[in-house]
Design brief:
Elements: H1 2-40, H2 47-72, H3 80-96, H4 101-125, H5 130-148, E1 154-155, H6 160-166, E2 169-170, E3 173-174, H7 175-193, H8 195-205, H9 207-212, H10 217-243, E4 245-246, H11 252-265, H12 276-296, H13 300-327
Helix pairs in contact: 1-12, 2-7, 2-8, 2-10, 2-11, 2-12, 3-4, 3-5, 3-10, 4-5, 4-10, 6-10, 7-8, 11-12, 11-13
């Protein structure tokens, strides 16, 4: 009887431990990264460095929010970074031409909405393959961004009200980080507690069944692509103020980071399912790696290798988990 009890206890404790590791392993990895870099380079946890990390992570988190839900629904958007670059160049071009920051921001935001409408209309409305469509629209957005500055950057002497908001702090925490935390908190509620969130994961697992159940799948996809275009444009606007310039090719640096954050974030909470909390944790991990690597003197190629390995791992985890889940359906 004693042996039986011990076996039962062991059998219960092992799944509990595995479940805990699966759900919270990414958060432990983020904590480990911060502790390791703080130990190797104490300046890593200085107030100025923490502030810079949180600001850059906040901009990235805004850009990747729409992408997270699109991938969670079983689709893809590889135009997000080019839309951000286009919004960045539109704002810089208009400000440099003397139109002022409010009108320039409106122009950048409008570009994001337009590309979201195009992506959503072609993918959800005409049922064209999302990868092909977003590669095409991303190329178009990137080409327009380069054309605005004739292939070069546009420097700005003032960052306007956007710069004031972006560099406002609450203690050592940027105000934008607090805003992003609230947005992601609301997104988590939508994702976990509203019907809309449940539809996202159901669409990825068995879209035909969701359609038969009367769920407006195409309308949801349409809205998701508009969301992705909009938040990408907002991130591009913030980058204009953060860099005090328009950079036509800035989107390329966010491509791998965006996919890595979303897919690696699929390790957290919902194994194999991209979710907003996982994306936020992965963004913090990438920000820590970028800052820590810079302080340690890593070359750009070394940082790219680490990013590539993380992306490969994230893809492997998500694909494996999705195949396992479908095998049980």
């Amino acid at each position: 009887m004693t042996v039986l009890s011990e076996n039962v206890t062991t059998g219960r404790s092992r799944p509990d431990f595995e479940t805990f590791f699966v759900r919270y392993g990414l958060f432990l990895l983020v904590l480990a990264a911060f502790l390791l870099f703080a130990w190797l380079r104490p300046t890593f946890i200085s107030a100025g460095n923490i502030n810079d990390m949180l600001r850059s992570a906040s901009i990235a988190a805004i850009m990747f929010l729409g992408l997270t839900w699109i991938i969670a629904a079983g689709e893809i958007d590889v135009s997000f970074m080019s839309v951000a670059a286009l919004a960045n160049m539109i704002v810089a071009g208009l400000v440099a031409a003397g139109y002022g920051w409010p009108l320039a921001c409106l122009g950048g935001l409008l570009a994001g909405v337009v590309f979201g409408l195009i992506n959503g209309g072609l993918v959800a409305g005409f049922k064209l393959p999302a990868l092909v469509i977003t590669i095409a629209t991303g190329g178009l957005a990137g080409s327009i961004a380069a054309a605005i500055g004739l292939g070069t950057s546009i420097s700005l002497s003032s960052t306007g009200f956007v710069g004031s908001v972006l560099h406002a702090n609450i203690g050592i925490v940027p105000l934008i980080t607090v805003v992003v935390a609230v947005v992601y908190g609301l997104s988590y509620v939508i994702q976990e507690h509203l019907t809309f969130g449940h539809y996202l994961y159901a669409m990825e697992q068995n879209r035909a069944a969701v359609v038969e159940a009367g769920v407006p799948v195409n309308r949801i996809l349409f809205l998701l692509y508009i969301l992705s275009g909009t938040v990408s444009a907002i991130a591009g606007i913030l980058l204009t103020a953060d860099l005090s310039s328009g950079q036509p090719y800035i989107g390329s640096s966010y491509f791998i980071d965006g996919l890595t954050a979303v897919l690696l974030g699929g390790m957290a909470l919902k194994y194999g399912k991209p979710n907003v909390i996982g994306t936020l944790a992965a963004v913090l991990l990438l920000a820590a790696l970028l800052s820590g690597a810079a302080l340690l003197g890593w070359t750009d190629s070394q940082r790219q290798i680490v990013r590539g390995l993380l992306l490969l791992f994230g893809v492997a985890v998500v694909v494996w988990a999705r195949r396992k889940n479908r095998a049980h359906i």
